[in-house]
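Journal club prep — side note

Before the paper discussion, L.F. wants everyone to see what a predicted structure for a comparable chain looks like in C-alpha cell form. Sequence:
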Amino acid sequence: MGSLRAQIPKATTFGGGCLLILKSGVRDYGKEKGDTESKRKLHFLQEWREAQNYLSIVQSHVLRTCKQPAWVNPTAELTIITDQLLHAYYYTYLLKGNDEHKSIEIVNNEYEKNRRDPNLAIERAIRWWETLEVAPTSEDIHINEWSISNRKILGYLRERDLSQDEILTIMRQNHAAR
C-alpha cells in the first residue's frame, strides 16, 4: 500500500482563485492543443466538487435538526435520506409533480429567493419533509428497501464482478438510471 501523500491529488487555483483539487491527467489552463478539453474537465470537476460540498452541507443540517417522518427506518443511512429529501422537495414541493418545461425558471427563482440565506432554505425544506405522513414519490421504498438491496449487491464487488441481473437490479432501483 502506497503512502497517503502519494494518493492526494494535485491542487491548483481556478478562475477567481478558488482552490480546486485535480485528478492526475487533468491539466490547468494553457495554450496547448487540447486546452478546450482540459477546460471542460476542470469545469466538470469544479461543478462536481461544489455539488458534493452542497450535499454535505444539507446532510449536516439533516443530521443536526431533522426529525424523520415515521415511514423512514430509524437505521436508514443519512446519505440516502438526504438524497431522497432533496428528491421529494424538488419534484413534489417545487415542481408540484408537473414540470411543464419550467424547471429552470423555478430553480432560478428559488435561487434568487434563497441565495442570501441558504441555511434558512435548507431548514425550510427539512421542516416540509418532517410533515410528510407518507412518502410522496416512493422515497420510502428507496430509503427502506432499495438502498439496503443496492448496498448488498455492490458489496459483492469486493469479491467478484456483478452479474447482468445484479447490475439491472441496481439500475431499476435508481432514479438516475431509469
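L.F.'s comment for the group: Residues 35-65 form the longest helix (31 residues). Keep this in mind when we get to the figures.
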